[in-house]
Amino acid sequence: MYRYDSYDQAIVDARVEEFRDQTQRRLTGALTEDQFKPLRLMNGLYLQLHAYMLRVAIPYGTLSGKQMRKLGEIAGKYDKGYGHFTTRQNLQYNWIKLADAPDILAELAMVEMHAIQTSGNCIRNISSDQYAGVSADEVADPRPWAELLRQWSSFHPEFTYLPRKFKIAVIASDDDRAAMRLHDIGLKLVERDGVVGAEVYAGGGMGRTPMVAPLIRDFVAEDEIISYLEACLRVYNRYGRRDNKYKARIKILVHEIGVEEYKRQVEEEFAHMRALGLNPPVEELARIRDFFAAPAYESGLSEEIDRSDRAFALWVDRQVAAHKAPGYAIVNISLKPIDGIPGDASAEQMALVADLAETYSFDELRVTHAQNLVLPHVRKADLRAVWQKLVAAGLAEANLDLITDIIACPGLDYCALANARSIPLAQKIASRFAAAERQAEIGELKLKISGCINACGHHHAGHIGILGVDRRGVENFQLLLGGSGAEDASLGQITGPGFSEDGVVDAIEKVTDIYLAERESGERFLDTYRRIGMKPFKEAIYG
Amino acid sequence: MVEFLSFREGESTQEPAVTVESFTGQSNATAVRIEPGEDARELLPHLDRLSLVEVNFPGFGDGRGYSAARILREAGYTGELRAVGDVLVDQIVAMRRCGFDSFHPAKALDDAAVDRALNRYDDVYQKAIDGRTSIWAKRHPETHNG
Amino acid sequence: MKILTGNDLASGDVIWWAGDGWSRQVSDATDVGTHGDELARAEEAALRVVGAYVIDATRDEDGVRPAHIKDRIRAFGPTVRPDLVEQPTEADIGKWVI
């Protein structure tokens, strides 16, 4: 894992003091709310429905046991004993006092964490693959790139007042676990003639105008990526729309001027940037890469897993993924208990997971964009011990990628922007499909709920997506089918008129019934939908 | 309170700035003002006769002026580069990094706050146009780029 | 009736204008008539509230009920965490919100 040096630490420490100063100016009236708002947003502090909300960055979704333990301590000391893991691999606290915010940032800085640029019209936290470094099929670990981009984007002098927020993802496998093409810029590492570089995708995103990012360059070598991104961002900063915030994301620019024209402008700017010496020394990426070297895996470990306990065996089959090192496994920890709140974890659960990371996973954890956690390197021989501890903590749900592994934004229960509540709907759907046999029968089905058009719950990218709207003061839910955020990225289509909360649960049941009746051997829900189209589903729902 | 802030040696240019349109027409002006939607590159053929470029920030959230400033400096402009309009104390450091060397904010700034802002961060990650050595370069003193 | 709500500047708590000051209980909210915006500006300037705004509400024997679900959720707390609710005595509070 990356560790701060004195430069990194000094920047984060200075940021804490800067925000302490700004907060003090606000509390004494030297700053008005209008003046303070952009400053607090640059530190991830929102004013939400019930209180201030603080969004903490978890860069590329990687953290240590110590960092997770600190997140739990903060939840206990400054919040109401829990936090919410988000679709951008961050953590949100829902009940923060403004006066406490500088102290919380100071506590985070003690464990090399921060909330810098987790909001605002700037380059946000860089997201990545939760299996980075441990999946067998990756070209290279994407996290050194992501860390380089974290540094590059922190307090970038030119790109802090962009037309709108800017999200970047980096992956390195053919399997896309980070919804890379639904980012403003997505990088996929590839190798060409022995050199690692990136395919660059630009102009993806969700929100009210969802788009899958097109490829704008098939290779940028690793020693030129900073110059190339400077060019991409400069064209966007200069020409992205600023007259309408709903048309200000880079996807609209790319769409309006066309991919070819955007590419042309970026290439022109890149040719200019190349001469400016903006790239870091090649030794810098090498320095960062050293932090991500594989841990000291033991050799000669057993591949055996004792499957005599049926509940344990079911959990292994569902939650455990193949690791590149013999004798090791990747453990997915579900934050989706049937009656729980998707992505929420209590202070005690965070502490337990921190312990597990330290004891069983080389002190490493990951956060996924599907709002789950990962212990990336667990010896197969230890799986049972890990499972028993997860069971005791209510963290052993076996539902990864199944219909109850629902992505849900905080919705109207917490969010000032929301039009409808996402969480109670997620709970109703999970209860309806709770039986393990039924979930297994349906198989992989990614269900994603957003409480408003901003799409924090990725509803466009759900095999089944749900969008909450406000219909004359009453919550109403639109149903979408056929989206995907994976390597086969696509956008879901709306089935038709919306439903009440109970109505949408019934509609989902009809949709899954059609799938079960129509599927051919080996087909996931998404495959069947793509083969037979919307019509049969629509007839079942509305017919 | 600070009404005008300059980091240049000697006097600042007093000449009133004209619009880009009238400047690139046939004006003999040596001072020009760029608005957010205007292309700084239109000035590049005329840099040698410019002594002041004002970049206007009608609202602090419109960041186009940062790119405009950098483009001028990248092209070798050495005259005065002044940020005017809704320029806030928390933005001065980034503006300095993009090449601005004078500031005329619509609302005067607090002296102490300006001092604190300028001295807040010892180091910067990225190379920009202000000549500061980046953290990336400091970490690798044996190499010269970055 | 028109009532005034916002968040306490320092704590962020949801607060309701109660005639002579702010209360954390929506049941204390009083009708601000046409003076809401003026009150909001004055109270914001006095650093007692942030994001103050006027909403419609009704009063009956159960207390004050904001017209919009969003404000009922603000008054009550997240409907999915009854353990955090301000007035835990009201067992059927979910119905009140919806």
Characterize the structure shown:
The complex is a heterotrimer of chains A (543), B (146) and C (98). With 543 residues, chain A is α+β, with helices and mostly antiparallel strands. Chain A folds into four domains: 6-110, Alpha-Beta Complex (Sulfite Reductase Hemoprotein, domain 2); 134-289, 2-Layer Sandwich (Sulfite Reductase Hemoprotein, domain 1); 310-392, Alpha-Beta Plaits, CATH 3.30.70.3340; 407-542, 2-Layer Sandwich (Sulfite Reductase Hemoprotein, domain 1). Chain A has helices at 6-27, 33-41, 65-78, 101-110, 143-153, 225-239, 250-257, 259-273, 282-291, 310-319, 347-360, 383-392, 423-432, 436-442, 501-518, 525-532, 535-542; strands at residues 45-47, 52-56, 62-63, 82-85, 91-96, 127-128, 168-171, 185-192, 195-202, 215-221, 320-322, 328-333, 344-346, 365-367, 373-379, 407-408, 447-450, 464-471, 474-481, 493-494. In chain A, a hairpin with a 5-residue loop joins strand 14 (365-367) and strand 15 (373-379). Chain B is of the alpha/beta class and 146 residues long. Chain B has one domain: Rossmann fold (3-Layer(aba) Sandwich), CATH 3.40.50. Chain B is built from five helices and six strands, in the order ββαββαβαβαα. Chain B has helices at residues 20-25, 64-74, 92-97, 111-120, 135-139, and strands spanning 5-6, 18-19, 31-34, 52-57, 80-85, 102-105. The longest helix of chain B is centred in the middle third of the chain and has 11 residues, at 64-74. Chain B is globular and about 50 Å long. In chain B, 40% of the residues are buried. Chain C has three helices and five strands. Chain C has a five-stranded antiparallel sheet with strand order 3-2-1-4-5. In chain C, a hairpin with a 2-residue loop joins strand 4 and strand 5. Chain C is globular, with a radius of gyration of 13 Å. The two termini of chain C are 19 Å apart. The model of chain C has no long low-confidence stretch (mean pLDDT 90). The chains are: A alpha+beta (543), B alpha/beta (146), C alpha+beta (98). Chains in contact: A-B, A-C. The A-C interface holds A 26-29, 33, 47, 49-52, 80, 94-99, 341, 412-414, 416, 418, 421, 423-424, 427, 473-475 and C 7, 9-14, 44, 47, 50-51, 67-70, 73-74, 77-81, 84.
